[in-house]
Amino acid sequence: MFTHSLPKLFSKTETQEIIRLSEDGRQKRGGLVGGIRHDNIRRAEISWLDDQGSAAWVMDRIVDAVARSNRDAFQFDITDFKERLQVAAYDEADEGHYDWHSDIGDGPIARHRKLTIVTQLSEAENYEGGELEINLGSASYSAPKELGSATLFASFMLHRVVPVQKGQRFSLTCWCHGPQFR
Ligand SMILES: O=C(O)CCC(=O)C(=O)O
Ligand SMILES: [Fe+2]
Asked: Where is the Fe2OG dioxygenase domain (predicted)?
């Protein structure tokens, strides 16, 4: 199916700490894979974590989860983590969302994305809408909304974040890289 979910990858305290770390580097409006900004496609505030420094423990947990999930569910060639961890905030105030897209882009790094892992950093009852959906062709898979759970999918799969109608949703995204699919 090319999707795989893990419950409770991070605890509540840890998700709060990740949001706090992201506040240091917050910038307005997330760009797209190639750096293009387009408000009709994505409306979110993004920031990047220092995975060599204050957020090294977050990266360690993600790398471990990816190794286990890749062995159990994907068996892709994953060789690198070439990008920093992204925290995104989708807000009711501007109907934060991200339309259908694939994470594999044209750039030298985005071209090598193989797996995407997204962790839920907000309590499900704190927002409405904001579902992460992965297109499976005739149906779509809606990622579990439980705080701290993570969902992995092949980066080429179309996915979206439904507009947030109430409250605010935070997510943590990490991309895993390897030789191009062949
Ligand atoms: O926030 C999410 O759930 C998904 C983010 C995403 O798809 C991306 O940044 O490429
Ligand atoms: Fe994406």
From this structure: 81-178
Of the candidates 175, 147, 143, the one whose C-alpha atom is nearest the C-alpha of residue 63 is 175
> CA 119, 121, 126, 129 torsion: positive or negative?
negative
> Is 118's C-beta closer than 6 angstroms to any atom of ligand 1?
yes
Centroid of ligand 1 to alpha carbon of 110 (angstroms): 14
Atom of ligand 1 nearest to the CA of 118: 3
Q: Is the pLDDT of residue 136 over 70?
A: yes
On whether the 3-177 domain is CATH 3.10.105.10, my answer is no
User: Are 88 and 29 within 8 A, CB to CB?
Assistant: no
173 lines ligand 1 (CB under 6 A): yes
Query: If we measure between CA atoms, which residue out of 173, 88, 172, 96 comes closest to residue 127?
Result: 96
The response to whether residue 159 sits with its C-beta less than 6 Å from ligand 1 reads: yes
Ligand that lies nearest to the alpha carbon of residue 32, given by its number in the listed order: 1
163 Cα–ligand 2 center, Å = 14
Residue 143 to residue 173: CA distance in whole angstroms: 13
> Residues 74-124: pLDDT tens digits?
999 999 999 999 999 999 998 999 999 999 988 999 999 999 999 999 999
Query: What pTM was computed for the model?
Result: 0.93
Give 37's pLDDT tier (boundaries 50, 70, 90).
Answer: very low
Residue ID of nearest Cα to ligand 1 atom 10: 103
